[in-house]
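User: Can you predict the 3D structure for this chain?
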Amino acid sequence: MTDVIIAVEGLTKRFGEFTAVDGVTFDVRQGEVVGYLGPNGSGKTTTMRMLLGLLLPTSGSARLLGLDIVRETERIRPRVGYMSQRFALYEDLTVRENLVFYAGVYGLPPSVYRPRVRQVLELIGLAGRERERAGALAGGWRQRLALGIAMVHEPELLFLDEPTSGVDPEARRAFWDLIYTLAEGGTTIFVSTHYMDEAEHCGRLGIMNRGRLLALDTPTALKRDVVPGVAWNVVAEPLLGALEALEAAPGVRYTGLLGDHLHAITEPGVHSAESLRARLAEAGFGAAMVEPAEITLEDVFIELATRQ
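Assistant: Here is the predicted structure, written as structure tokens:
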């Protein structure tokens, strides 16, 4: 993986006085699965649309596959695939008819698209269902078809903009299996998400907030290097009262609800499980349980957003 597929330098997009993307710089190498994590409105989609030539940057530059995104857009488009958040399937057409239609849009002749459509149907798990109407498919299968359409022309680079939004966890896992099957075949994938668990699947992960790229590294490195603290899981009743007690304790950087327990980050070397239990006992939570935990990507995001 030595070839740079995406090279971005100071990419910025302003809409009037609002800066949607602010001086973003990064690169993506061949065969990588790079994630773009951030809340809605953080600039993820705007970045993608600039890279695809759908929006002109206000300033900065970028190259895809060695080609300039402004001057050479028409040469880039046949070599990339794009699955937007609301990918337009033709609901009255069958699964196969949708694939054939988009293959024609990409300029594939019948001698090329016929075997390719069969291959894609197998890959996305819709072989045997090619005569079903797209509009009759459940959400997870619709997403698979949308991915098949984005890759029917065998692009070198795939942009997936929150591709699993609105589908169930099982469908999301199956979708990520497809993503890694494509990556193993040499396709470079740039995928945006706001799901923390999905972000764990990325080889490298960029964290966006308010238009800025706050960090870009492997999930493991981000959790190791960004958060200067120790993580703890705390079980106590009632949770909100225990949360307030921990927030008031010296040396506690952050405390939040995590399912049926609390998750806390403390300054390095300040607390042990025993000292936190003692603090909770003083506040009336004598039965509280405290145990070491792992730093999460949510911790990383909160730390970076707080610094910003």
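The longest helix spans residues 169-184. The chain has a mean pLDDT of 94.
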